[in-house]
Amino acid sequence: MPEISSTYQMLALAAIAGYLLGSIPFGMVIARVMGLGNLRDIGSGNIGATNVLRTGNKGAAAATLIFDAGKGAVAVLVARALIGEDAAQIAGLAAFLGHLFPIWLRFRGGKGVATFLGILLALYWPLGVATCATWLVIAILSRMSSLAALASAALAPMWMILLQHGELLLLGAIFTVLIYVRHAANLTRIKAGTEPKIGRKNSAP
Question: Within a domain: residue 188?
């Protein structure tokens, strides 16, 4: 973490604002607006871009990806501009937790990968680009979104060290642990060789 220079009141404000922004379930909103139905009844029931893609609407999936990543980035950039670097990390973590545990959906949210990538891009764009590239390479090679997510989360702390941003390591470790927890079922299926490929409409959670 960076040196704490902001007041606890301002950090709390950044956390609350970040959480509320992160809690917006853009996947569900976009699916509803575009007449794709309730994401809870589609594919895995997840609210993220991968599940939106299972509707067959690539545009909706792309929009979900952009908005889910964007809310994490916006939380970081606004907190940095208005308060400071310590608040930026707090707001980013809060936005990530908001996506995972959104108050609007009774704390049943998504897996946080797009939001995680958006946060890293906003915190330090070379780190975000390296992590996105990791996701992309693994996704192309494996055709598994979950494996790409797990690999990018696992390697993010390594990129932080290589890019000399050790002050982000604690935050990166929290992201990695939470992404692995949220992908526990995917890990089981990957080991069993039954994890669905990207683009399949009828996929497991």
Answer: yes
**Token pair for residue 188?**
């089981």
Tell me the two tokens of residue 182.
Answer: 């949220």
Instruction: State the Cα–Cα distance between residues 67 and 5, nearest whole angstrom.
Output: 30
Task: Tell me the pTM.
Answer: 0.92
d(CA 129, CA 10): 29
26-30, 74-78, 88-92, 94-98: least confidently modelled range: 26-30
pLDDT digits (tens, 9 = 90+) for 158-176: 999 999 999 999 999 999 9
Alpha carbons 144 and 92: distance in angstroms, whole number: 26
Q: Which domain holds residue 121?
A: 8-192
Burial class (CB in 10 A: 0-12, 13-18, 19+), 71: buried
